[in-house]
Write a structure and sequence with these properties.
Elements (H helix, E strand, L loop, with lengths): L2 E7 L5 H11 L7 E8 L2 E8 L2 H10 L6 E7 L14 E2 L3 E9 L2 H10 L11 H12 L4 H11 L2 E9 L2 E10 L4 E5 L2 E5 L11 E4 L5 E5 L2 E5 L10 E3 L15 H7 L1 H12 E2 L4 E2 L13 E6 L2 H16 L3 E6 H4 L10 E7 L5 H12 L3 E6 L5 H5 L2 E4 L12 H20 L5 H22 L2 H11 L4 E6 L3 H16 L2 E6 L17 E4 L6 H12 L5 E5 L11 E6 L6 H9 L1
Helix pairs in contact: 4-5, 7-12, 7-13, 8-12, 8-15, 12-13, 13-17
Length: 580
Amino acid sequence: MCGIVGYVGLHEEDAVPFLLEGLKKLEYRGYDSAGLSICKEGQLINRRAVGKLRALEANVSDNPLSSHIGIAHTRWATHGKPNERNCHPITSETIAVVHNGIIENFADLKDNLKQQGYVFYSDTDTEVITAILSKSLEQGHDIESAFSELRKSIQGHYSLAFIYSHEPDTIYVTRQGCPLCLGKAEGGVMIASDAMALELRARNVCYLEDGDYAVITKDNIRICDNANNCVTRHYHAISHLHKPSDKGNYRHYMLKEIHEQPEIVNQVLGKYIYQPDKKINLPELSFNPKDISHIVLCGCGTAYYAALIAKYWLEKYAKITVSVEVGSELRYTDMPFKKDMVGVFISQSGETLDTLSAMRKFKENGVKTLTIVNVPQSTIMREADTVLEIYAGQEIGVASTKAMMCQLVTLALFAIQMGVLRDIITPSYSEQLIDELYLVPRLINKALQNEGDIANFAKKMSKKDNIIFVGRHIAYPLALEGALKLKEISYIHAEGYIAGELKHGPLALLDEETPVVAIAPQSIAYEKTMSNISEAVSRGCELIFLSDTDVKDEFTNNVIFSIKMPKRRQMSLYICLFYN
């Protein structure tokens, strides 16, 4: 979740404005503190602040500084509380470091450094980086030798950058598992953990590979791989994804992105459907669908829930065995890999480390990989055998909305096309399904007309401590996703359950103080879902009812809010796109 930016250039006045500008572009990632370091006349000068970026901007405004070089960071606390002592950059007298990721062996390194007399002032894992560099310099090594010693010592997944006061024209960077890119601008070179931070100043960026390190000055970039061989990393145009954005007339980015969904869904359909004959036109697959007997879908968070939904579609329309795995767990399984398997990896950013690690495990075992991804030139996109972009555009809201919608549309198209290529469904049936997809943007617009009523009801729900979401069959992943969204954006405790599993424990949580969101489209599980809702009603729960049919009479007294969805022919395909 953290963000890194850095700059080295010709002019004293350039670094600080860029650092603040870059951090602002990375606010969407979430953070709890921010800071920057510059080098001026052989001295490091730091500004750090807890809370929103405006606190750092106020600090800089009250205590102005300028330089031609600097690094900056937005931090999401992992080791140590979010206080000023633990804000990045983490510094010594001559070294300032910013770091994303986790140094997994930091405890052992820290104990060893303490025994050598190093005194730690922060609680972060990052400080072992500063300490290793400082101790190496004290022992007479030059900075590049110290950098080499650092890379040999630390283990984990990370990207990092540092400046050294005795070399005030150079930034040193390296990455292992976490993204880092470089961009050239008139008068200097910039670094960032996300190309979005560079979009206003650079047209092209290059991405470091795992194990790469780079030594960067205003007019030279030397990149080496893990074996110390100098290498060339190609530059890519910053994509359509990185267009300058603002909230427009919306109160926040998430609301803006929710309202962008109809247009974005149309855009995805336009990318992948040849309109005159309604043929799906996906990129060439790296495998023959008729030779595949098993698909493994993998993602984390919202992407995992999108995978759970896609499982129903692939099994229905392509008649293929599908399993769904969480990225953070898949890499630890002893899954038997077979040549007739395909791994499908879903990630908005294309940099989700757990998903990337799982994909690499598949590739190491000779299994073909396909990715559903939003960010061009991301690591997962570069390494997958087949790529399906979701074309969601820049998503700044922390809780994914339009990206999940685009993931679902793309997965629906993939499932339909797999069915056609495996001779499971006919082209004419495929056209019927595509017709259903083309209705989705219009129906989303219709749903958004309920915004005022939903906002008023949300105010009432904001006082609740717990909310339960339930659904069956294809509505179950939606219950999980709804609970996740509520937790992310309101900090209200929420859980999603399979409605049929309420009687196996969760019923103990239900009472008149716990509202239940029931997602109940008319499907093969509708009557069973109604039975489960009765169990909640019998405990006095208030109901929020989402369905394409009317509320049953016996639930009327308990329903405090409902939204009726329009009926469609292919509900199992349509309902997930619409309910999101």
